[in-house]
Amino acid sequence: MKEEYDVIVVGSGPAGSITAKTIASHGLDVLMIEKRQEIGDPVRCAEGVAKLQLKRHIEPDTRWIAAEVKGSRIFAPDGTPVELSEDVSGAEVGYTLERKIFDRALANEAALAGVEVRVKTRATGVIIEGGYVRGITAMHIGEEREIRAKIVIGADGVESKIGRWAGIDTTLQPSELESGAQFLVTNIDISQDFCEFYLGNAIAPTGYLWVFPKGERSANIGLAIGGDACSKNRPIDLLRDFVETRYDDSRILEIVVGGVPTSGPLDEMVADGLMLVGDAARQSDPLTGGGIINAMDAGKIAGEVAVHAIEEGNVSKARLREYDTIWREKHGKRLKRSLAVKNRFVTMADDDLNKLAYSVKDVDFSTMDVFGLLVILVRRNPKMLWSLRKLF
Ligand SMILES: Cc1cc2nc3c(=O)[nH]c(=O)nc-3n(C[C@H](O)[C@H](O)[C@H](O)COP(=O)(O)OP(=O)(O)OC[C@H]3O[C@@H](n4cnc5c(N)ncnc54)[C@H](O)[C@@H]3O)c2cc1C
After folding, report:
1. For 197-234, what is the HEC assignment?
2. Chain centre to alpha carbon of residue 127
3. Alpha-carbon torsion 197, 200, 203, 206, what sign?
4. Got the DSSP string for 299-368?
5. How far is 64 from 72, CA to CA, in rounded Å?
6. 4-43+101-172+264-343 falls under which CATH superfamily?
7. Which ligand 1 atom sits closest to the C-alpha of 158?
8. What pLDDT does residue 231 have?
């Protein structure tokens, strides 16, 4: 490891790898570090992604695709189903990934583009000089080091500290952090063609439960609820109840726990010499919790802006804000809408959720996406969804 690079990327998830690859492919000198000894492990994800959006970044590969679905089914608390087809199911279904292999494949692409990758290397602080972030301190296999760079990029996920160390307020309220638990379950009879989502205060208060097929009689079954609902309900207990009740012969091969930011993006995603991407910038979807594609999209934009800023010799906050601007133009409105819908849905009683599902029972969803579904819900339930009327 050298003492100086053009860019240091902290974190080797989807955000980090795409950012690092984008910058290195322009010939710049990039270091990407990962605190764990293995990229992609342990998994903290339900591993659902939309096909088309994924293909913008990487060609699908059977080595990291565990299942391919045709659509999704959403179940109201009383069991009323709403079915969406494959092409239109929104951002979170299409493939169920094997993220252990997927994250590593992304990091491999970054490495092949010229990125220096260092695992078991944890950022422990940022170096600030003259108000600019000029590098990081890092612990590399038991040895503390100072590493300098023109730009530091925090891609360090939900637990991100890089932004806070640089003076950006990254605080999340309990209601803005969904707490998730998931089992990789086998020996169950489920359709491998559909992702399923279950709503209801008994199943997942303020959140939802998912069943994502993972091939050969197995699935990721998990749920996430707002941190403010966790004092009364432990996600793992709710999940165990659901799995034991529905799949009495099931076997659990893996347990996943983790948090998803559902606050919507940070007000500030850049500082002098610093950029934040992915969960570190709170770019995951507040309604669904999906963050893989959002992280990759942001990584591409951030990477391109970083290259130009370095070429121009100007890494000031004002220059790097171009990333923030482009990102908000492309994704800001969608995430704002998701946040408003989430904030309305978390206050709903089960009866209201049932009424919403009944109200669209006659609708043909074969050509309609989640946005279309929400438009119809708002039109058919104007009183209940009054606060959302201007968004759709
Ligand atoms: C239970 C659960 C289910 C989910 N399901 C889905 C889903 O189905 N679909 C979807 O799209 N999204 C899902 N998400 C969200 C998704 O996992 C994240 O949005 C996505 O991983 C964000 O990518 P990232 O690169 O920003 O962060 P991460 O993937 O979290 O990567 C950050 C990396 O930074 C490393 N790191 C942290 N601190 C340091 C440090 N100081 N030094 C060095 N390295 C560091 C971490 O070890 C990690 O490898 C889910 C999340 C959870 C918790």
Report:
1. EECCCCCCCCCEEEEEECCCCEEEEEEEEEHHHCCCCC
2. 28
3. positive
4. HHHHHHHHHHHHHHT---HHHHHHHHHHHIIIIIHHHHHHHHHHHHHTT--HHHHHHHHHHTTT---TT-
5. 21
6. FAD/NAD(P)-binding domain (3.50.50.60)
7. 30
8. 86
Quote the tokens at residue 204.
């997942």
pLDDT digit string (tens) for 18-72? 999 999 999 999 999 999 999 999 999 999 998 889 999 999 999 999 999 988 8
Q: What is the pLDDT of residue 87?
A: 59
Could you give the CA distance from residue 103 to residue 12 in angstroms, rounded to a whole number?
8
CA 41 – ligand 1 centroid, Å: 10
Running along the chain, 392 residues long, what does each successive block of 10 average in pLDDT?
98 98 98 97 94 92 94 93 70 82 98 98 98 97 95 98 97 95 96 93 95 95 95 94 95 96 97 98 96 97 98 98 98 94 93 93 76 88 89 81
CA quadruple 286, 292, 295, 297: dihedral, nearest 10:
-110
Measured by CA distance, the residue closest to atom 10 of ligand 1 is 290
Q: What is the DSSP letter of 115?
A: -
Q: Which of 322, 245, 340 is nearest to 286 (CA)?
A: 340
Residues 299-330 pLDDT 10s: 999 999 999 999 999 999 999 999 999 999 99
Whether 260 lines ligand 1, by a CB cut-off of 6 Å, is yes
Which pLDDT score is estimated for 372?
Answer: 82
Which H or E element spans position 22?
Answer: helix 14-24
Task: Tell me which residue has its CA closest to atom 50 in ligand 1.
Answer: 45
Tokens 């590098």, residue? 135
Q: Is the CB of 91 under 6 A from ligand 1?
A: no
- Interhelix angle 14-24/99-112, rounded to 10 degrees, is 20
Q: 34: helix, coil or strand? A: coil
Instruction: Locate the ligand 1 atom nearest the alpha carbon of residue 181 and give its number.
Output: 1
Which residue ranges make up each domain of the chain? 4-43+101-172+264-343
* Three-state DSSP class for residue 8: strand
CA 233 to ligand 1 centroid distance, Å: 24
